[in-house]
Structures are given as C-alpha cells and as structure tokens.
Design brief:
The complex is a heterodimer of chains A (113) and B (501). With 113 residues, chain A is mainly α. Helices cover 70% and strands 0% of the residues of chain A. Chain A starts with a helix and ends with a helix. In chain B, the strands form 2 sheets. Chain B has a two-stranded antiparallel ribbon. Chain B has a two-stranded parallel ribbon with strand order 3-4. The chains are: A mainly alpha (113), B mainly alpha (501). At the A-B interface, helix 2 and helix 3 of A face helix 5 and helix 6 of B.
Chain lengths: 113, 501
C-alpha cells in the first residue's frame, strides 16, 4: 500500500510542479515544466501495468508477474520525450538568439505582423 | 508481395526520407522526392482499390497475433485518407521544388517523414502506435514550420511545439489509463473490453476517453484548443502550409476512427455521447474561424482561418454520427483539404510576386502575373467558399442535406450559411485589395515560379475532378460511413487474424 501511495504522491507532485512551471511566462520555466510533466507521465505509464516488486516480467506458471508491456511503453515514451525535450531546448536557444529575449508572449511589434 | 503492400505507405517515405538526408544535389533531391510521392500515390491507389472491396485488410507486424502485437488495418476510411494525403503530397513536393528547397537542405526529407507519420497514423489499429505516429508527424511538422527561419515563424513554432507537447502528454496519460483499466491497447480489443468494465473502472475509462477526445480536438484545432493554428499556418512557407491542410484532418480522422469504435453505441454503458462533446465546440469553432477571418490582415491568415472553419464544419456534421452525416462529412473533408491547400499555394504565388509586402492586405504595386494569379485566386475562392461549380458547393449541399431533419439542423444550417457568407465576403475584400486596389506602376521583375503555379493548377484540377466525379466519390464515402458504423465487422476482422507460423 505504501508503495502505491508514494508513487501516486510522486506523480501528483511532479505533475503539479510541471503544470505550474508550464504556465510561466519565460521559456526556460516552460521547458523545465515540460520536462517535469513528462517525468510524471513516465512514472504514471509505468504504474499502469500495476506495481509489483521482484516479479519476473514473464507470464509464468505461478500466475504473478510484472507487466512487461507497460515497461516497453514507458521506454518508448522516454525516448520520444527525451528527443522532444532536446528539440525544444534547441528551439528555445534559437528563439533567444533570434528574438533577444526568452519571453513566451510576443512583443507588440511582433503582434503587428 | 501484395499482402505486404499495406505497410508500404509507411516504409516507402521512411526509406525515401533517409536517402534524401544523404543526397546533396538539389536537383536529385527534387527528382527523388517526386518519385517517392508518385510511388506512395501508386500504392495508395492500389490499396484504395483493395479497400473498396469492403473487407478489412489486417496486417500483423512481425506476425504477432492480435491483440498482442501491433496491427495495421486497412479499411475504406484509412484508404480514403491515404489517397487524399498522397494526392496532396505530389503537388506539395512539386511546389517545394520551386526555389523553396534551396533555403533548407532537408525540406524534401522532412516532407517524406511527415508523410510517413501521416500514413502510419491512418493505418494503425493500435492506440499507442497511433501516439508514436503522431509524434513522428509532429516532429516533422515542427521542422517544416521552422523552414525559412523568420522571427515570426520561430515565435509561432515555439507556441506550436509546446502546445503539442502538452497534448502528447495528455495522450500518454489517456493511453496509460485505458491500458490500466482494460489491459489492452489494440483498438478492436478495446472495443470488446469496454462494455465489460465495472462501474468503478468505467469512471476512469471515461476520463481517459474524454482526455483522448481533448487530444484529438487539439490536433484538429477544435474550440477552445484552436489558438495555435492561425499563427503557425499563416507563417509557414506556402507549400508547407498546403501540406498542413491535411494535418488538422488527422485529428478529425482519429476522432472518427476511435470514438465510434471504442466509445460508440456498442460500448453499452461505457459509451460516450459524441454529440454532446463535439457539436457545441464544433459550432463555436466555426464562429471563431469566421470572426477571425474578418479580422485577418493577411491572405495567409485568411487561409488559416478557413482551415479552422472547415474543421468546425466537418466535426459539426460528423458529430451527428448518422450514416448520411458521416458520409457527407468525409466528402467535405476531402474537398476542404484540397481547397485549403489550393488557397495556401495561391497565397504563395501572391507572396512571391509582392516582394516585401508579402501577402499583407495593403495597397501595393501591380503583380507581374496579376491576371493569371487573380484567376487562380478566384477559382480557389470559389472552391473553398462553396460557390458552384466547384466541389465546395456540392460538399456543402451534401452537408445540409445530411443534417436535414436532425434536431440540430437549425444550428448547423445557420452556422454553415452565415460562415460561408462571411468567408465569401472576406475573400472578396482580399481579392479587391490584392488585385484591383493597386498602384499603376508595375512592380519589380517577375520571379519565375513555374513549378509553384503548376502545383497550384494541378490542385485546382483535383478540385474540379472531385466535383465532376462527385457521384462515385459519394458512393465510396457512403460505403465508408456504413463501415465506420459497423464496428463489429472491424473487431471481428482484426481479432480473427490467426498467428500463421
């Protein structure tokens, strides 16, 4: 029970911090927010296969096993999330260089176009 | 060989993209890209003919027996979307060859990656695999949007990427919840498991369903998740924006594919009331698109808002979920993709001829090829707003016919007619400013944009063909709608595939 509670609280806190940072007006915070949110989701996807300790990831004869599919899913999600984060980092740097600031909102002059 | 054809629309662009990364000379790139697009079109035509026999073609990747492995499922709906994408990709590739690809060496490669993601999303029968293909087409679209690297593009891309990443996060949460509740991600198997859920599980499955709907609505740019669309589409290079005309349709496709199948009437108490969740936002999308069109100061902005308008229109009618409504919505979807892309390409022609002014609706010098451009603009405006004789008129007449007698008919008719009127009005204003309110002094020397013009004309021809052959196309969409509603056949076809050794 305590493991479930710990995981749930961990996912909740990570997601909360992620959403809070996502709503900030600076690109750097948004980036951190996205990263935290993707961590929360990775743990969540992992937990969707039920939390089991010390079980083989194989459908064995004694019935109890750790779900291997959820682990495969989370691995894919981590890879994709990592690539996307890297892309956003590069984009944010490019925007900082090009636009001269890292605010999320456009300037009045940019709005004009 | 023919049995493996189903996977070709994914593999062919994947290989072409990989080769195109390595090829340097731009002429060779153009030839390869065009050849790959033509190849995908040929495959799409073959698959279309195969799907028209009315059976589901199930391809188990790695020969893993469903529901354990990933399956690709070809039916009329996916064949229609494949063909539409392939028909759009060929002119887009041609338009990209018009000097646009000299500004970025990977443009053609990215186009192929985008096609791979689109085709995969249309074919897959697995929810997680759908997520993966969504990511592929999104990352390609991020890079395509950035092509040209203007400051406005960078800003638009930043918002577009962050919004879509949050959308992908929601998608993952929904997928994980559904997996936790049902133990499967195969769509056919999900359809079997949904009615068997306990009450306590049903609540979670429902929240997952609504989250999925929100994600698809975000991809389709449905109210209130549509604000990312206009800056992204109006700032993209013209051929890229034309390709993006099919991107919002992926969201619509996903809604039409997943919702009736997994959360439809067959799900019993787990069913989701699509009309309630889709119809009001779709009508609101139409209203917002039309109002934003009135306010747009650029031709590209108008074309982007028209994309929004078409999304709202398609989903408003598709939400009625009757066979006639789905059929009409699919015909309109095909039409609005081609017509929207056509308008974006015309916008590219205008931009190329007006120098610094671009597509801004301001008085400028007379365009070098004003006459032919004006004619193309007129034709695309006729098509997109629904004035006879082009396909828009037929499509909108079908939509109105399909919603006749429904309780929501007054709403749909009112919104459809008023937004069409606003669209006509705004495009007229745009045409007047661009072509009539011009200074008499001719502009600078005409840039040669023969390929862009050829691509525009070929899309126009497609729009004409869509209206000339509207009867056979309508028969096909009718059959498609029947197939969408008959979810049992889908489930049976997928789960009946035995594991051959």
């Amino acid at each position: 029970m305590s493991m479930e509670l710990l995981t749930a609280v961990g996912v909740g806190v990570l997601a909360m911090a992620g959403v809070y940072l996502l709503l900030r007006a600076r690109m750097f915070s948004v980036l951190l927010g996205l990263t935290l949110l993707s961590y929360a989701i990775n743990v969540f996807v992992f937990a969707s296969g039920r939390l089991r300790v010390g079980m083989p990831p194989i459908v064995g004869s004694h019935g109890d096993y750790a779900d291997p599919l959820a682990q495969a899913l989370v691995l894919t999600a981590i890879v994709i999330g990592f690539a996307m984060t890297a892309f956003v980092v590069v984009l944010a740097i490019a925007a900082h260089v090009r636009l001269g600031h890292d605010r999320v909102e456009p300037d009045a002059e940019e709005m004009d176009r | 060989m023919i049995a493996h054809l189903v996977v070709a629309p994914v593999l062919l662009p994947a290989f072409a993209a990989a080769v195109l990364v390595l090829v340097r000379p731009v002429r060779l790139q153009r030839a390869l890209s065009l050849a790959a697009c033509a190849g995908v079109l040929a495959v799409a035509l073959l698959l279309f003919a195969q799907a028209d026999r009315g059976l589901h073609v199930v391809y188990a990747l790695g020969n893993w027996r469903p529901p354990f492995g990933i399956v690709l499922v070809l039916d009329r709906l996916s064949a229609l979307m494949l063909l539409l994408t392939a028909l759009l990709a060929l002119p887009v590739s041609l338009a990209m060859s018009d000097a646009e690809d000299e500004r970025g060496p990977y443009l053609h490669s990215l186009l192929q990656f985008q096609l791979m993601g689109l085709n995969g999303a249309f074919l897959t029968g697995d929810l997680f695999n759908l997520f993966v293909f969504f990511e592929i087409l999104l990352i390609a679209s991020y890079c395509l949007l950035l092509h040209g690297q203007g400051a406005a593009q960078l800003r638009a891309a930043l918002h577009y990427v962050v919004v879509n990443l949050v959308g992908s996060s929601l998608f993952l949460i929904a997928v994980a919840l559904l997996y936790a509740m049902t133990g499967t991600l195969n769509m056919a198997d999900l359809a079997v498991r949904m009615p068997q859920l306990q009450d306590s599980e049903r609540v979670l499955a429902h929240s997952a369903a609504l989250m999925l709907l929100a994600v698809f609505a975000l991809k389709a740019a449905l109210f209130p998740l549509f604000l990312w669309l206009a800056p992204a589409y109006s700032n993209a290079a013209a051929p890229v924006a034309a390709l993006f005309a099919v991107m919002t349709k992926v969201g619509i496709y996903a809604i039409v594919r997943v919702c009736p199948l997994v959360f439809g009437a067959a799900a019993g108490e787990s069913a989701l009331d699509l009309r309630l969740w889709l119809l009001p936002p779709a009508l609101a999308t139409m209203a917002c698109g039309a109002l934003a069109m009135l306010a747009s100061r650029r031709l590209g902005g108008m074309a982007a808002q028209l994309t929004l308008l078409s999304v709202g229109t398609t989903l408003a009618v598709a939400a009625l979920a009757s066979q006639a409504a789905l059929s009409a919505a699919l015909y309109y979807l095909a039409h609005s993709t081609l017509a929207g892309a056509l308008l974006f390409l015309v916008c590219g022609l205008v931009r190329a001829q007006r120098g610094d002014l671009g597509d801004l609706l301001r008085r400028g010098a007379r365009m070098p090829n004003a006459q032919s451009t004006a004619l193309l603009f007129l034709a695309s405006a006729l098509a997109v707003t629904g004035i006879p004789p082009l396909s828009g008129f037929i499509a909108k007449a079908m939509l109105m016919q399909a919603s006749t007698g429904d309780a929501a008919m007054p709403w749909i008719w009112t919104f459809l007619l008023v937004t069409s009127f606003i669209a006509i009005l705004t495009l007229m204003r745009g045409g007047i400013v661009l072509f009539w309110m011009v200074r008499s002094t001719p502009g600078a020397h005409a840039p040669v944009c023969g390929r862009l013009a050829a691509a525009t004309i070929s899309l126009l021809i497609l729009a004409v063909l869509l209206s000339v052959f509207s009867a056979p196309v309508k028969r096909f969409t009718d059959a498609t709608a029947v197939q969408i509603i008959d979810t049992e056949a889908y489930v049976r076809a997928v789960l009946a595939v035995g594991g051959r050794p």
